[in-house]
Amino acid sequence: xxxxxxxxxxxxxxxxxxxxxxxxxxxxxxxxxxxxxxxxxxxxxxxxxxxxxxxxxxxxxxxxxxxxxxxxxxxxxxxxxxxxxxxxxxxxxxxxxxxxxxxxxxxxxxxxxxxxxxxxxxxxxxxxxxxxxxxxxxxxxxxxxxxx
Length: 148
What we know:
The protein is mostly helical. Helices cover 66% and strands 0% of the residues.
């Protein structure tokens, strides 16, 4: 099979980055954390891009990478947080009216779940992956995602 090219990578990323960012936000609950997860996922994808011509379902492959990056971030703990002697500036952005309450309820519900449970919900209902694929991504039996 022919190797994938950089232009194919850029086209793929342009078409999927919004969905990846949405999934990452639902996983971690923080827009900055979501950006970090997506960036790390896309960096890993780029390093593997020429060699993944065998992948049939590239979206599922990337969603798997995204969830694994998220779970790895949670395992690392707070030790990787940089302590600063100054506060970075925050840019406030107002969400569109009407979405605030719904997003708040969904966000609160997702953040109340453990990271692996959150991954199951996001993969099943946002990424629309079957139970079998979710179980494969998380490295567990098919009954585990069904029970969560």
